[in-house]
Amino acid sequence: MDEISIARAVHVLAVVHWIGGVSLVTLVLLPSLMQSIPAAERLNLFERIEGRFARQAKISTVLAGLTGFYMTQRLDAWDRLSEPSFWWMHAMIAVWAIFTFVLFIAEPLFLHRWVRDRAMRDPEGTLLLVWRMHVLLLSVSFVTVAGAVLGAHGALG
After folding, report:
1. C-alpha–C-alpha distance, residues 15 and 33, integer Å
2. pTM of the model
3. What are 86-109's pLDDT values in tens digits?
């Protein structure tokens, strides 16, 4: 087994963990909170549960980024970024960059505070907005994963 195979396995496991967690939060946790928990209590419970995953997601996104960069460098695949048929590579980088920005910069610097302040005024609408943003990011992530799998196996070229 060579280093590329190991990097690819770590990359896929990191993405499965990260996007799988986003899927659980988006499709199970948030809808359950919105249906069964009083509006005033939702954000606190969401933050407690999601906070545990956020720490794990940071590790997964770092691993996905490092292994993705390593494979691109090791395979000398940088030229693919100039070819439209490799749109899925751009999508992977964009999804990774968005989540990395949210997890490492936006959330600790201002997003957490903004959501809390908004929830004080509108707890119902705030969690609905959080859910809608998760749906958007999850949808883009699913398209990206599907495109990457198809593209990596020659089905898009």
Report:
1. 25
2. 0.93
3. 999 999 999 999 999 999 999 999
